[in-house]
Amino acid sequence: MTQVAECPECGNPRPLFEQCPYCSSQESPTLALDTIEINLKQGQPLVEEAIESLGNYLRNASELGIKAIVLIHGYGSSGEGGNIKRAVHHALESNYFSDRVHEYYFGETVPYGSHAYHALIKKRPGLKAYLKRFKAGNSGITVLLLNAPGVYA
Ligand SMILES: [Zn+2]
Can you tell me the distance from the alpha carbon of 140 to that of 147, in angstroms, rounded to the nearest whole number? Predict the structure, then answer.
């Protein structure tokens, strides 16, 4: 994962959602960016596990003030990758995560350079570094724009 956080206690780079590997601090990290990438396929979870971790990621991310998430869920007509994608799409379309997610864009709808892409980058410039790799769009990702902290309270 791209390095985006710094430990408030020892100043070393650290993962977002785990304790600091240098000093074991559990304090919320200081963010360098407002956009992060989350790989839902990591650890090859079952669909239910992937959706559950997405809920946890969204809660943590919105509390940390993160504004956009590039969610990697994979794709495919069969297998767990395709199932996770379908479950993510279904959850979003059913407003299952609407307390945290303000807007979402399926990767295939925002190919680099398209009108939709430019409109999205205008809203969240931090996404450019992630999306510029996908010239033809990427059906294996979904971009989530999060509610500002407090909106859901
Ligand atoms: Zn530390």
Answer: 23
Report the range of poorest mean pLDDT among 19-33, 93-107, 121-135, 139-153: 139-153
Quote the ligand 1 centre to 4 CA distance (angstroms). Answer: 14
| Tens digit of each residue's pLDDT (9 = 90 or more) over 105-115 | 999 999 999 99
Residue 131 lies in a domain: yes
Query: Ligand 1 centroid to 146 CA: how many Å?
Result: 27
CA of 3 to the centre of ligand 1 (A): 14
DSSP assignment of 35-82 equals EEEEETTTT---HHHHHHHHHHHHHHHHHTT--EEEEE----SSHHHH
CA 26 / ligand 1 centre spacing (Å): 8
Q: Is residue 151 part of a domain?
A: no
Question: Does the predicted TM-score (pTM) go above 0.85?
Answer: no
Ligand 1 centroid from CA 42, angstroms = 24
Measure 112 CA to ligand 1 centroid, in angstroms: 37
Domain of 78, CATH number, reads 3.30.1370.110
